[in-house]
Specification:
alpha+beta; five-stranded antiparallel beta sheet; 10 strands; about 60% helix; globular; repeat; transmembrane helix
Length: about 600
């Protein structure tokens, strides 16, 4: 490693290496949001004089990033116009009666769609449909949700639009002097990968995926019925009489949330903090048994009659018509709620919803919820009015896991949305328009035709992804400018000199897979592409073959939930354990590690 150490020993090289190592530590530890880490790295490289301000922010003006922003809006317009309603109806229908058939639908239909629409909104849209299907069929969500994520990941390799990783790789390739990639540059290799991966998913899912629950009754609602939602009365002589909830000891001393208050024929729902309590008020509480016992011993509250309590439990489960519903929502990666406590967020006031429990993997948190610091992948059990739940459907910070289609108005713009999306794909395919222009025109057309409201354009963009990808470009620029990429490539060249092209590409591909699982796909692309292309030059091999190897490796994460956004999205709802994903994804990872470099060799004639 003499060349690399020599360059790393210089001032700019040492600073760059230090920033890279620090960024990797932050990426892995999660102490800062990934996009904040990327911005910090860019700022430090400018502060210490490694890069100029223009070089550090070059990625924010790249055609790939602008294309991605437009693509988010187009995808949102397609979904909101009802362009995928038929697919949703098919997945939720009685035509699909077994996990095997559902998986066949995923790999055969959903995966190709993911080749042209970002897979994150596809998974977010189909999650509630699949959960409803599992509940009706008595099938564990763990049997179908991970195949959904894997299918969309495989489909994302079919075209340039499939993932943000592909677009980022195209931009880095342009910056390195090898030109941007076309819409179908990856297709000749992406199609065989899709077929190989789909075959594996179809035949091995029933053998390798665990059964984590029947799906007949949601785990969190089941816990609610077991008694931590309790109906009580305020008796005569209670210290609560004449006080508001805000001034009483009920919420300050005890871990208690008041969900509803019933007074005579009137009912009140959150927020209830300033409502003055009276004798005879009936409260629906969320609390544990110990606190409830203490409240009873101090004559603060008494249990309501059993018949009333049963009525409220039926109301919570949706057995009777009620303006309040209990629903599950998922916190996706990039949500602004991640990293904050429920109390600091003022969750109830912000969403007009009461949090009943949090599921984190297989762990259910029910006590001291105000102190719980939310994490990406958490599943929240909420009670809220129907209007508040509808508002959550349009919120990028939350993914609703319960179907509300019957409550929403239908739209007559689905064919318009589908036509706009089709033209966005066809115009660049026939070289009639550059890809960026086609995507931006499609975005404007979505707004002009009413498929997407103007105010929804900004909300549809995943700004965490944009900030991360834009800031990460400083890594590849610094690697090139300081000579670290060339030096590391020279050391790898000495180690791999004389190896066949397939073996070299295999090493590069496996290295890309390891970086993706440990860090993220975007980080892998910007860190490894400069090194891989320099290695290709030294071996007199096509640099584009190595660009393909890194891009495909970064687009295929099947071992951990952190490597890819869709894996994290299904991890909580599927009630998976960490090793579930590794056991299911390891054979596929190994298969693609052996076949993808071979496909690249055949494509480039190596």
């Amino acid at each position: 490693m003499s060349s690399f150490l020599a360059v790393a020993g210089t001032g700019p090289g040492l600073i760059t290496l230090g920033v890279f190592i620090g960024a990797i530590v932050l990426f892995v530890s999660g102490k800062l949001a990934p996009e904040v880490t990327g911005l910090l790295a860019a700022a430090l490289l400018v502060t210490f004089g490694v890069l100029s301000p223009e070089e550090a922010v070059k990625g924010f003006g790249s055609p790939a990033l602008i294309t991605l922003m437009g693509l988010f809006a187009v995808a949102s317009g397609l979904f909101r116009s009802g362009g995928l309603d038929r697919l949703r109806a098919l997945i939720g229908s009685d035509v699909v009666r077994s996990p095997k058939r559902m998986i066949a639908l995923m790999v055969g239909v959903v995966a190709p769609i993911s080749g042209f629409i970002p897979n994150t909104p596809i998974v977010a849209t189909l999650l509630p449909v699949l959960e409803g299907w599992c509940q009706r069929r008595g099938i564990s969500p763990s049997r179908v949700l991970l195949p959904l994520s894997f299918a969309t990941i495989l489909g994302g390799t079919i075209s340039l639009l499939g993932t943000s990783t592909n677009l980022l790789a195209s931009d880095v390739s342009r910056q390195l002097g090898f030109g941007s990639l076309d819409l179908f540059s990856f297709t000749a290799i992406g199609l065989p990968i899709w077929l190989i991966g789909s075959t594996y998913i179809f035949f091995f899912s029933d053998r390798l995926l665990p059964d984590r629950g029947s799906g007949d009754e949601d785990m969190l609602v089941s816990l609610a019925r077991e008694g931590y939602i309790t109906d009580v009365l305020i008796p005569q002589g209670s210290e609560l009489i004449g006080n508001s909830l805000h001034d009483s000891r009920l919420q300050r001393r005890f871990d208690v949330d008041v969900l509803e208050l019933h007074r005579g024929g009137d009912s009140f729902s959150a927020p209830l903090a300033d409502l003055q309590l009276q004798a005879g008020d009936r409260l629906l509480l969320r609390c544990n048994r110990d606190n409830l016992l203490r409240l009873q011993q101090e004559h603060t509250v008494t249990l309501a009659p059993v018949g009333d309590q049963e009525d409220d439990m039926r109301e919570l489960s949706g057995a009777t018509e009620s303006p309040q519903r209990v629903v599950e929502v998922l916190l996706p990666n990039g949500s602004s709620l991640v990293g904050a406590s429920v109390r600091d967020l003022r969750f109830r006031q912000r969403y007009n919803a009461t949090m009943l429990a949090v599921r984190r993997g297989n762990q259910v948190l029910r006590e001291l919820l105000g102190r719980v610091v939310l994490q990406a992948g958490d599943v929240l059990l909420l009670q809220a009015p129907l209007d508040a739940i509808r508002g959550m459907q349009a919120n990028n910070d939350l993914v609703l896991l319960d179907e509300l289609e019957k409550d929403l108005p239908t739209t007559d713009r689905k064919f318009t949305g589908m036509a706009i999306t089709a033209l966005m794909i066809l115009l660049p395919m026939f070289k009639l328009l550059p890809l960026m222009a086609a995507v931006l025109l499609a975005m404007v057309a979505m707004v002009a035709t009413g498929c997407l409201r103007p105010g929804e354009v900004q909300r549809s963009v995943r700004w965490d992804v944009i900030l991360l990808l834009g800031s990460l470009s400083c890594f590849s620029v610094a690697m090139q400018k300081t000579g670290l990429a060339e030096a590391l490539a020279q050391d790898l060249l000495r180690a791999l000199q004389g190896w066949p092209a397939y073996a070299v590409l295999l090493v590069v591909f496996v290295l890309g897979q390891a970086f993706t699982e440990a860090l993220s796909n975007g980080t892998t692309v910007v860190l490894l592409l400069p090194i891989a292309t320099e290695l290709a030059k030294g071996l007199a091999l096509p640099p584009m073959a190595f660009i393909f190897a890194i891009t495909f490796a970064a687009s295929q994460s099947f071992l951990t939930p952190i490597g890819y956004q869709t894996n994290l999205m299904v991890f909580g709802p599927g009630r998976y354990r960490f090793l579930d994903m590794a056991r299911y994804g390891a054979p596929l990872t190994l298969t693609l590690a052996l076949t993808t470099p071979w496909l690249i060799c055949r494509y480039f004639g190596l």
